[in-house]
Amino acid sequence: PIPGSDLQLKVDRLPLMGSHEAPRRIGLLFDYTCPDCRQQHGYIREAVEKFDGKLSCLMIPMPLDKNCNDLIEETYPVQIDACEYAKICLAVHQVAADKYDSFDRWLFSDRDEKKELNEVRKYAAELVGAEKLEKALSSEALQEQLKQNILIYKLNYEKNTVIPQTIVHDHMIFGLSESAEKLQSELQRILKLKSVKLVKAKEPVLETEIVGTYDLRYGENIFRVVFQEGGIVIITNDKKETREYKWKIEDGEVHVEYEDFVGVYRIG
């Protein structure tokens, strides 16, 4: 649902960044022609990859172009053809949802510069087939979805016209986040994606190996953590209660998972 409304998104009609099985899902209302939107998209891509399998994001193209958005009185030069870019995003997903991620990564490969419309249309046609793409672009389902995306923008139009708009549970983040790290911090706080720090106890730590015993500091609490071979970690609290988690190393960080809990740890 969209915060402050009864509007429900038809998630199967929208592209998804990340796994369909992810327990936490956010949404990004964006216009590809908007530089801040492209930057926020990059921040979200980093967050989705950071929380490996625990976070996904619905992509909601919303053009700031009067040719398809009656809220816009004048289309600024930078937003020319925004409607067409949005339609191509939706069409690629409609024709071949499994290929959208490849399209999305290519489309946003340069956050600083938007790709030319003809180039985008050509790439999309090569990816999903020119005939299927054109059919999807003119479909009623696509037009209906575009109208719903614009309706989402309209819900907050009187309060805030800024985009991107990032939908996080019952929160709306308006505009570009200060940094990728700041966005990840907000997501951790709102969605309860835990992030704590491991402090070395006795055993030496190798760059690619963490098997051993550590003290885990979380607020005022200290837990004993034992990383075992085979990807299992046992965490014991001050009440001698234990839990078993799975762990793995990625890019010098330790990812620990248990049901809806994901922690990203740094050895220090």
Automatic annotation (TrEMBL):
Pfam families in alphabetical order: Thioredoxin_4 (PF13462)
Alphabetized SUPFAM superfamilies for the sequence: Thioredoxin-like
Residue span(s) of domain Thioredoxin-like fold: 15-184
Protein name from the UniProt record: Thioredoxin-like fold domain-containing protein
